[in-house]
Automatic annotation (TrEMBL):
Taxonomy, superkingdom: Bacteria
One Pfam family here: TPP_enzyme_C
Protein name per its UniProtKB record: 3D-(3,5/4)-trihydroxycyclohexane-1,2-dione acylhydrolase (Decyclizing)
Organism this protein belongs to: Paracoccus methylovorus
Thiamine pyrophosphate enzyme TPP-binding domain segment(s): 424-577
Positions of the Thiamine pyrophosphate enzyme N-terminal TPP-binding domain: 36-132
Length: 623
């Protein structure tokens, strides 16, 4: 190679490259990679850790407790930074790598960037089989790391030191591409990490990455404008892409000018405050009666930055079969779904171009006011559901309301799987933009606490909301993944964790019984346990305290408000627990297609099957 070179091991070169990548957030130049979550083992401790140790002042390494959870923390960080700054999650080979596959699925489904680095077997194969190596008899090239291929956007295995010169820029470009955004995986053969190579110094020159904003094709904009001009009752669906494009202000102006109500997806919630003049609620299975009524009536749906997941579409029963979709999306794959007039491009630029093409057109002047009237009815329903009662055990909505009321400016609500997503998507009233994170693309139990840790880190630099992550989760999820309470306590990051204890997996028990199956193996009392009348109860307060958190059990709603105020004044991690009702849920009016047995001895299952067939008759065909 021509030009000057520097002799480094492959691991050293990889780390030096990461340290020299930069991005801009709100006009401020910052490192693209803010840090590394790492658990070291024999596949990365002798070489990669040696390289990371020498740069810990520039690229800090944080020790996780579990490979899955530390990668989830990286995802929570990326979401809090609106995909503009990233983290690395590094693990050894074998079970450590396999543990991260679930987190890769979360990032893949939610279109979020995280760099996953795992050790691998020996490229020369001389020591095979090495510790933790799975062996495929017919293909010696397969390792555990091949399991990442279905759940990452970019995958590579480095077996020669010079390969990172091509691989690393491609991985970064993929993670920052709005169309292809998602996790990147790089496997590092153990013997390749140690090898020295004369790397060209130009490879390590500082590089400033900017998020591209691809402009839509003019003809697609013209076609979309023609369709929208013919609409009688148009509706806008605001998805996560609106937030990541930072298109909320442009969309708000567009919707107000054109008189079109805006409904939101789960990923899109938080782009608008609850009381914004164009906002009329969440749509779909976790949606409001206001948004769903407008969705059923809409003849043209302008879907912006959404992949149209089944919880948004009610398994494609939420809209008229004759409704026309216009889809503005950076990803062509999403833009062409359901016969949409596809506008492939950045959300902000697409909205601006569409606005220019519409001239002086506006929707019926009564459309947006009617949407706000329907939304007011929904808010009155929420008020009634959230009002305190004499019930011995509070409902989720009552708990959500107290947390929502006490939350301070910039505080971010974080939750994921279980019963809470439906309750907070419906009932959480967003006060400040970008302060709501419900991971429901993959619906991953265990996301919540690690994401809180990552989000707490994200508050430390540009782009943060300046508040505290408030994590809400159920007792079932807490039992599945709680070790990052200890992680955050170790590192001194502040978050509030609220455990809603309803005695097991209550929301899936709700679905089970709604489809005719008797309660079985979900609530603790319905499991195969020693004493069903007296299930063993976990002392969450003592458990959290043992991991370094300040903790308190809350007896009722009045105590909850005081406990949250106490938690706000604490440093580090505070964990609260409260018993909540396993049977009271916010009503919904959208359908969901799930498999129900075609043949069953239960009459209740047979009735549920008939209802399910009725649901399927209402579905749009996606071709």
């Amino acid at each position: 190679m021509t030009g000057s070179t520097v002799r480094l091991t492959m691991a050293q070169a990889l780390v030096r490259y990461l340290c020299n990548q930069f991005t801009e957030i709100d006009g401020q130049r910052v490192p693209l990679f803010a840090g590394v979550f790492g658990i070291f083992g024999h596949g990365n401790v002798t070489c990669l850790s040696e390289a990371l140790e020498t740069v810990q002042d520039r690229l800090p390494t944080w020790r996780g407790q579990n490979e899955q959870s530390m990668a989830l923390a990286a995802i929570g960080f990326a979401k809090a930074k609106q995909r503009r700054q990233l983290m690395v999650a590094a693990t050894s080979i074998g079970p450590g790598a396999a543990n991260m596959v679930t987190a890769a699925g979360v990032a893949m489904a939610n279109r979020l960037p995280v760099l996953l680095i795992a050790g691998d077997t020996f490229a020369n194969r001389i020591p095979d089989p090495v510790l933790q190596q799975v062996e495929h008899f017919g293909d010696p090239t397969i390792t555990v790391n091949d399991a990442f291929k279905p759940v990452v956007r970019y995958w590579d295995r480095i077996v020669l030191p010079e390969q990172i010169i091509q691989s690393l820029p491609q991985a970064v470009a993929t993670m920052l591409d709005p169309a292809d955004c998602g996790p990147a995986f790089i496997g590092l053969a153990q013997d390749t990490q140690e090898l020295a190579y004369d790397y060209p110094e130009v490879f390590f020159e500082p590089k400033l990455w900017r998020i591209p904003r691809p402009r839509p094709d003019r003809d697609s904009i013209a076609a979309a404008a023609d369709v929208l001009k013919g609409a009688r009752k148009p509706l806008i669906i605001s998805g996560g892409g609106v937030r990541y494009s930072r298109a909320e202000d442009v969309l708000a102006d567009f919707a107000a000018k054109r008189g079109i109500p805006v409904v939101e997806t789960v990923a899109g919630k938080g782009a608008f405050t609850h009381d914004h003049p164009v906002h009329v609620g969440p749509v779909g299975i976790l949606g409001s009666t206001s948004a769903n009524a407008l969705a059923r009536e809409a003849d043209v749906i302008l879907a912006i930055g959404t992949r149209l997941q089944d919880f948004t579409t009610g398994s494609w029963t939420a809209f008229s079969k004759d409704a026309q979709f216009i889809s503005v999306n950076a990803a062509r794959f999403d833009a062409v779904k359901h016969r949409a007039v596809s506008v492939v491009g950045d959300a902000r630029e697409g909205i601006a171009d569409l606005d220019a093409a519409l001239g002086d057109w506006a929707a019926d002047a009564n459309l947006l006011p009617r949407g706000k009237e329907l939304f007011a009815e929904w808010n009155r329903l929420l008020d009634s559901l959230q009002a305190p009662t004499d019930a011995a055990v509070p409902s989720y909505q009552q708990v959500v309301n107290v947390v929502n009321r006490v939350a301070r400016p910039g505080d971010t609500l974080i939750t994921a799987a279980g019963g809470l997503p439906g309750e907070v998507v419906k009932g959480w009233r967003v006060k400040d933009p970008h302060t709501f994170d419900c991971e429901f693309g993959f619906s991953c139990m265990g996301y919540e606490i690690p994401a809180g840790w990552g989000a707490a880190m994200a508050q430390e630099g540009p782009g943060g909301t300046g508040g505290t992550p408030i994590v809400m989760l159920g007792d079932g999820t807490y039992m599945m993944a709680n070790s990052d309470i200890y992680s955050a306590a170790l590192t001194g990051h502040k978050m509030i964790v609220l455990i809603c204890d309803n005695g097991g997996f209550a929301v899936i028990n709700r679905l089970q019984q709604a489809k005719g199956v008797p309660g079985f193996n979900n609530l603790l009392k319905d499991c195969r346990i020693r004493d069903r009348n007296n299930p063993l109860h976990v002392d969450f307060v003592a458990h959290a305290a043992a991991m370094g958190a300040q903790s308190r059990h809350v007896e009722n709603l009045a105590d909850l408000e005081g406990a949250l105020e106490w938690a706000q004044g604490n440093d580090g991690v505070t964990v609260l627990s409260i018993v909540t009702d396993a049977w009271t849920w916010t009503p919904g009016d959208a359908d969901w297609d799930v498999g129900v047995p075609e043949v069953s001895t239960f009459e209740t299952v047979r009735a549920a099957r008939a209802s399910q067939e009725d649901i399927r008759k209402q579905q749009r065909i996606g071709v």
